[in-house]
Amino acid sequence: MATLLLFVLFPALLWGETLQINITKEINVTREDDESFQTQEQFHNFAHCNETLLNYISMTCQINFQQEMQNNKKELWCDWEQVIRPYNRLTTCMEYVAEALNCFFPNHIVQDAFIHIHTSYFQHCPDQHEGFIDAPQCVVITLTLVPVSLIPALVFLVVWKSKVRD
Q1: Contact of 110 with 94, CB cutoff 8 Å
Q2: Are 113 and 60 in contact (CB under 8 A)?
Q3: Nearest to 54 by CA among 4, 17, 1
Q4: Phi, psi of 124 (to 5 degrees)
Q5: Which residues have CB under 8 Å from 85's CB, separation 6+?
Q6: pLDDT of residue 146 exceeding 80
Q7: Backbone angles phi, psi at 38, to 5 degrees
């Protein structure tokens, strides 16, 4: 019943939002090169954000993502090449829903949804930016002691050569 209601409500919501955008000609988009990106509250009216509806409709984005991820093998969940398309569709869906409901993107509901997705699917993925592996201790000691022991010998040679000239 909830799914049926969602499929009836979501197109009506989007159709109504499309009409509203066409009538008012307002676009809720801030470009990267816009100098006034930090003062968006004065340009966009986000006062009518229905967070309950946003939470409910964003569930469809998450369900679609979960279905796409279930189609992939669990071993491929950490392979970015396999995950990029469903993840991009999730992001686009969440952004579109937030914009259709006159909500900021990202907001706390969207962030919670992404945190849930990340803990469910990507928590056990290895960090791809792992640091260098430490060299064996014997190599480190050798590479440290050889130059350090050469310094007194070189100092002795410099002092000895300077005395020979005098």
Answers
A1: yes
A2: no
A3: 17
A4: -95, 10
A5: 68
A6: yes
A7: -85, -10
For residue 149, the model assigns a pLDDT of 92
The token pair at 155 is 């100092």
One-character DSSP codes across the chain: -HHHHHHHHHHHHHHHHHHHHHHH-------TT-TTGGGGGGTS--TT--HHHHHHHHHHHHHHHHHHHHHS-GGGTT-HHHHHHHHHHHHHHHHHHHHHTT--SS-HHHHHHHHHHHHHHTTTPPPSS--PPPPPHHHHHHHHHHHHHHHHHHHHHHHHHHHHH-
Q: What number is the average pLDDT over the span 39-65?
A: 77
Sequence-distant (6+) residues with CB within 8 A of 56 are: 6
